[in-house]
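It is worth pausing here to work through a concrete case rather than discussing structure prediction in the abstract. The textbook approach is simple: state the sequence, then state the predicted structure, then interpret. We follow exactly that order.
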Amino acid sequence: MSFSKIFLDKLPSAPTLAYNFAEYIVNFLNELKIKYNIKWKIKGKTGTLIRDPQKFYERLNWCLKVIDKRSLTPYQQKIISELQNFFIYTHEIYVMCKMLNYIIDEGGKILNDKIYIVPGNLPSSCVRFELNDEGMTLIYQAAILSPLLDKHHLRPDLIIIKDLVENMREFNDKYVSREKKPIVKCRALVADAKVIVSERDVKQLRSYEELFPEGSVFVIFALTSIPEEYKAKLVKWRVIVGGEFRKEFIKILNTLKT
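Step two, the predicted structure:
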């Protein structure tokens, strides 16, 4: 069974969620533009669908109707796979925007004059902010580079650090070790947005644990429940399934600042 089939079987509400996520993202970013003169752009096909929530809903609804067919054309399979990825990226950006919204609601101030997002890809997006007189940075798709890594780089969906950095190059220069582990030299909130957690995801998340020093906080924002066998392997990770997470998020930020 393909991942796309599992994805749509486990999340039949995907079209409605896509609409709600996209609508929230656009409304929030437009509010930043109107109130604070912060320009924004989301690149690629994901950005196009986010700006048209109704079309996003209709495309995913089409997926639900055709996925159970015994034979799909290669073109249909390609479209379904792409839409699945667009949904995953939209969920990531939704969690990012919720975080920024909570920060503003707590009296925080975003310092960027623009927010430029490339869904699921590079360059990383850095959003600098102040909260309770502390400078911090939220990074989307944080591409951590070090010769100590087996792979060229690892990219947690979202991290927040207690410092102001302009871009990922500055982060890697200041906080990534080239000589010893843990590779990242500053504590961080490390968050990953997951639609469905698989065995492969568990390995990915465990690899992030080794990157960051003691005192870092690891959070999974999941849309579906995580099997107990996987939870047992992710004891360092807090799991938030759907819903609001303002209170816990702000509590974690305050812990990070101490």
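Step three, interpretation. The mean pLDDT is 91. The radius of gyration is 18 Å.
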